[in-house]
Amino acid sequence: MTVKDQTVFWPHGARMALSLVVNVEEGAEYNPLEGDAFAESVDEAKASLGKGQRNVANESNYRYGINEGGPRILRLLEKYDVRATFTAAAVALERAPALTHAIVGGGHEVCAHGHRWVHQFRMDEERERRFIKDAVAKITDKDNEVYG
After folding, report:
1. Which of 51, 63, 57, 53 is nearest to 27 (CA)?
2. pTM score, two decimals?
3. CA within 20 to 30 Å of 139's CA: 15, 18, 86, 97, which one?
């Protein structure tokens, strides 16, 4: 790659820069157990159950992602000595302390992806600002048992 007739090299002679980003949202989605009026819809199909009904199948899928999928991804990243950015809902990290310890302990970056996995576009400015502050506070709180 050239910029103004200068050749630009990446560290260690690499020919490409790559940013890997992994979402961690499971356990922070809409759920009547959280006082929400409805459960998260089923994937891109947007299929949903009746008002106030839990989607136990989705909850099971999300638990599988936290308990099995996340650790598999972390093992691959470790195997190839790659660091990633984990865009995470703060509540998801809080509810998955083993995964959170592995992310932080592996030297990966945590990026706030909201306090919960909910629609911010429906929030007024004051509520959205509080939502963002809550996420950042929870993720950066070193006294939080998640990071202990």
Report:
1. 63
2. 0.78
3. 18
